Amino acid sequence: MDCLFCKIAAGEIPSTKVYEDDTVLAFNDINPEAPVHILLIPKEHICCAAEITAENSAVVAHIFEVAAKIAHDMGFADGFRIVNNCGDSAGQTVKHLHFHLMAGREFGWPAG
Fold first, then answer.
1. Cβ 34 vs Cβ 102: under 8 Å
2. Tens digits of per-residue pLDDT, 2-57?
């Protein structure tokens, strides 16, 4: 499989790791949209949110637990945003489930 995030999770491509365990990897986004912009990915390849099932949904719950831990540890638990894009029309550019954890600025509701 030629998946960028699978290669990052496997250590084949370097990243600036923020958190890692057996299931989840969190690393700084190389094109940040906020002062804090961390990507959280399952190490297991799941294409997108549309492919979450009863068999793999526990990893998504764990990702949100990790996001809360990171927010507390880094001192921004009082305000952050988590975003997931699913599919081309939603702006998903890497076809591996991932969540953007962003903080450090004010966020508005998207206009479009």
1. yes
2. 999 999 999 999 999 999 999 999 999 999 999 999 999 999 999 999 999 999 99
CB 23 within 8 A of CB 43: yes
| Helix, coil or strand: residue 83 | strand
The three-class DSSP label of residue 71 is: helix
Active site (catalytic) residues: 98
Confidence at residue 112, expressed as pLDDT on a 0 to 100 scale: 57
Q: How far is CA 18 from the centre of its chain?
A: 11
Compute the distance between CA of residue 6 and CA of residue 41 in angstroms, rounded to an integer.
9
Task: Reply yes or no on whether the pLDDT at 91 is more than 60.
Answer: yes
Four-residue CA torsion sign, 50, 54, 56, 61: positive
Output the CA torsion sign for 66, 26, 33, 92. Answer: negative
> Token pair for residue 44?
């297991």
DSSP string, 24-65: EEEEE-SS-SSSEEEEEEESS----GGG--TTTHHHHHHHHH
Find tokens 């637990």 and name the residue.
65
